[in-house]
Amino acid sequence: MDYLVRTLLKPYILDSPNWDYHNPVLRKGAEFVLNLETFDTCPGKPFESYYMEDYHLTQAQLDGFLYKLGKLKGTHVFGNPNIRGHAEVFRDELEFSFLVTHTLGGEALYVYYFGQSNGDELALRLIPLLPPAERHLLMPIDEELSVVQRRLEEWVDRLLSLDSKFSL
């Protein structure tokens, strides 16, 4: 990802971010502003990257970036930058925090939010044991809160089941 951003996006960065994305001031030749943020669910890597950097691109430049991005491993979704929240699950004395955002595909994306709770040490050790596709959760945006909470609790319970020292 770093290579893609450095080679395909960084040349088109504006030094100061736009504060009005409905009426952005575009760099000469650009058609729109891309504001990229990544969440890496692999422990040991920076969780958030590229936040608050605006890339002034043409459609052809974006298409080239998306083509290369599609070749990378992982789950890639477009999210609404104006929607962001948190969710928590408690197990015994441990708290597990999640970052929540809405995808443009109409789903709520939940990823474990490292550095926010006392369950981090355990999560850092156990999340790599999950298959990559299970390191996040996607749910309908309008899912009932009780269902969301139950699914998050099931995810944490599955994670904890990977640790032989932890019993539920």
TrEMBL record:
Originating organism: Saccharibacillus kuerlensis
Protein name (Swiss-Prot/TrEMBL): DUF695 domain-containing protein
Superkingdom assignment: Bacteria
